[in-house]
């Protein structure tokens, strides 16, 4: 520290010292405040309190003639002389005695000038008649606050688990709150900690050797403390002050080096949402001077110390308890924003675009979003998220969309976590979860070796069905079964359609994830009903009078098989399509032929099937009675029509009249064989009877 600064800090600003031989003429200047009506005509006097070199205390009185018309006016600065003083100035007292038309007065500051040095004491106070105000002479410069920090800590069994820090400002008005989410538990509590560093250093002997009449002096930080108070709904529910007198600092032992403080307070009141904890750390400088009192000889005595309280510096900050997580406006409101849109739940497109909107936090506000994409793998009968996430990231609160690319067929969960400003990584948060199936490679397969399709309503090994349902609903329908015939190996083996387990990292409310719903609307946590990975069978039917030759495809009147799990369908309909993911699959078809009776049908097919179409058509022109006709059905084919399949009439059971049946069967067999060789082996599929084409179509979950 240089000499000039040392003089300003201590000697010039702290004390007025004189020796026994020295006296100084003093004068006092008073400034009246600039407010309206601040001036006065009152009788004003000042008292200067002096500590003499002998150690005694005395007062010097200065009269101030404010009753004069040109004194103590608004914004005026008026100076009056005072007696000389021999000692140390300790304080200045201003008193108003009243009188005149304007007895009230607002004084701004008082300046004491002595020996070419000015000492300004701030008053800034309104005074009515009879009032007085005193200001102590203080150290002119406050200590320096080098650092200030507040911490809220959650302690568990004496160990610090969570910590939130708040930086201080020089006053409450300019400090912004720090949000904290801590809750005490059965084995934990909340602790407040304040830490700050201050210093003040006067002139050293190297900067400026002290005068001979100064026996000893000390100046530095003499006190420090932290005030704190917990406010709930505008009322203090808890408060206190903790002093920091480390190293024994006091006015007799000021600390001239850095003064470090760290003080802790256990919160005995459980904080609630919206509570605010304010704190203010403060340090004050000051010290003492010991003067040698010479008695005119070579000896001297040391007077008792003269103390100076100095100035205080204070910094402050506050915490606000935010114990509520963010929320979506559709849950706690009536908005239509989508909390997490991942597009189609069943997709063949590897490029997934995520969108979200409508997230809110009414207290600390949203700090960030974090998105994570997990691939699901079977664990027992449930699908669980496989760690770690295959993609993810943290983004700011103004970002509401993100794109990802999937590289592997499978079931995925997408988790969006919304965190408030009590973080980062330690704030209140809430998560939403959505699911999707990505499959651009698998397909429906068929098992033609072990699990075939057959007409179950025929009975036994018969190819005829004679009891058919009529238009009133009486009679037997045509029933086709296909247990385990269709399957999707990839979906079945990896359990793509099984139920999905809870999120492994955090609990997600039912309002923020889809727990029910099946394709094609969505993929939820719910198990998707399926048989071997097939989720849907649909049926359609068609009729012609050309033996099925004109039935080139389904007419498009598809209806869902309602009891899909049974692997069967009762056919008045004729096309069946299995599906494993909701899209169109391959076709399977069966050929049916019908007539008034078995022998009439065989006769029609063998005698007239490809020779005289009108004969057969005349037999089946009654539409209302069509379902009473018998059906002759060949086996079902996968994606093909076999022109060489033949009816097996001989496999039929005998009718009630065995002799008649045998005669007719023999005749028909003979005619069939004869006709076949005559026509060069043309397919019986050319029969002109009104025919039905039965198709089955399977669907994958992804189409």
TrEMBL record:
The keyword Signal applies. Keywords: Signal. Residues 1-25 form the signal peptide. InterPro entries: PLAT/LH2_dom_sf. It comes from the Eukaryota. This is PLAT domain-containing protein. It comes from Branchiostoma floridae (Florida lancelet).
């Amino acid at each position: 520290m240089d000499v000039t600064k040392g003089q300003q800090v201590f000697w010039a600003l702290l004390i007025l010292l004189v020796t026994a031989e020295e006296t100084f003429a003093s004068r006092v200047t008073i400034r009246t405040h600039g407010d309206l009506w601040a001036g006065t005509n009152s009788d004003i006097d000042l008292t200067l309190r002096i500590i003499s070199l002998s150690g005694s205390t005395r007062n010097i009185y200065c009269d101030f003639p404010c009753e004069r018309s040109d004194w103590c006016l608004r914004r005026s600065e008026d100076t009056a002389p005072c007696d000389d003083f021999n000692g140390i100035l300790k304080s200045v007292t201003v008193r108003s005695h009243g009188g005149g038309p304007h007895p009230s007065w607002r004084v701004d500051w008082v300046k004491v000038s002595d020996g070419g040095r000015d000492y300004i004491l701030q008053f800034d106070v309104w005074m009515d008649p009879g009032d007085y105000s005193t200001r102590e002479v203080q150290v002119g410069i406050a200590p320096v606050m080098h650092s200030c920090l507040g911490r809220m800590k959650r302690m568990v069994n004496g160990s610090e688990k969570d910590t939130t820090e708040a930086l201080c400002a020089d006053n409450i008005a300019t400090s912004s709150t720090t949000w904290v989410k801590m809750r005490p538990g059965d084995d934990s509590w909340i602790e407040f900690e304040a830490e700050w560093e201050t210093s003040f250093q006067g002139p050293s002997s190297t900067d400026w050797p002290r005068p001979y009449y100064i026996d000893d002096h000390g100046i530095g930080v003499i006190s420090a403390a932290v005030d704190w108070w917990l406010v709930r709904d505008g009322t203090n529910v808890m408060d206190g002050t903790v002093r920091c007198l480390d190293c024994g600092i006091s006015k007799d032992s000021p600390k001239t080096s850095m003064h470090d403080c760290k003080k802790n307070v256990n919160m005995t009141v459980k904080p609630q949402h919206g509570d605010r904890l304010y704190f203010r750390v403060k340090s004050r400088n000051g010290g003492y001077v010991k003067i040698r009192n010479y008695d005119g000889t070579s000896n001297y005595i040391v007077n008792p110390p003269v103390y100076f309280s100095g100035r205080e510096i204070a910094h402050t900050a506050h915490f606000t308890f935010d114990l509520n997580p963010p929320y979506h406006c559709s849950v706690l409101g009536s908005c239509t924003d989508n909390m997490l849109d991942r597009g189609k739940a069943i997709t063949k497109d590897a490029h997934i675009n995520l969108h979200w909107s409508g997230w809110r936090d009414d207290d600390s506000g949203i700090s960030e979003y974090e998105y994570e994409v997990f691939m699901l793998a079977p664990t027992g009968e449930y699908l669980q998220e496989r760690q770690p996430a295959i993609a993810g990231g943290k983004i700011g609160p103004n970002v509401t969309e993100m794109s990802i690319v999937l590289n592997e067929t499978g079931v995925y969960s997408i988790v969006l976590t919304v965190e408030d400003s009590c973080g980062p990584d330690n704030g209140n948060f809430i998560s939403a979860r959505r699911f999707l199936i990505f499959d651009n490679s698998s397909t429906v397969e068929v098992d033609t070796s072990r699990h075939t399709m057959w007409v179950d309503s025929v009975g036994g090994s018969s190819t005829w069905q004679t009891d058919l349902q009529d238009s009133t609903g009486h009679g037997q329908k045509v029933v086709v079964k296909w247990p385990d015939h269709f399957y999707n190996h990839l979906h079945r083996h990896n359990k793509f359609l099984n139920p999905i387990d809870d999120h492994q990292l955090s609990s997600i409310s039912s309002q923020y994830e889809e727990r029910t719903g099946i394709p094609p609307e969505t993929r939820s946590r719910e198990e998707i009903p399926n048989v071997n990975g097939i989720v849907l069978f649909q049926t359609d039917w068609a009729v012609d009078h050309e033996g099925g030759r004109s039935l080139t495809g389904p007419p498009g009147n598809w209806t869902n098989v309602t009891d899909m799990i049974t692997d069967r369908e009762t056919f008045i309909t004729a096309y069946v399509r299995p599906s494993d993911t909701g899209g169109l699959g391959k076709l399977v078809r069966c050929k049916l032929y019908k007539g008034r009776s078995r022998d009439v049908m065989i006769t029609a097919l063998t005698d007239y099937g490809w020779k005289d179409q009108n004969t057969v058509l005349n037999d089946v022109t009654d539409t209302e009675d069509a379902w009473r006709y018998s059906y002759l059905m060949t086996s079902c084919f996968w994606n093909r029509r076999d022109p060489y399949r033949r009816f097996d009439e001989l496999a039929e059971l005998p009718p009630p009249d065995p002799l008649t049946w045998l005669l007719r069967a023999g005749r028909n067999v003979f005619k069939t064989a004869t006709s076949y060789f005559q026509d060069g082996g043309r397919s019986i599929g050319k029969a002109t009877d009104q025919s039905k084409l039965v198709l089955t179509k399977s669907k994958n979950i992804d189409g």
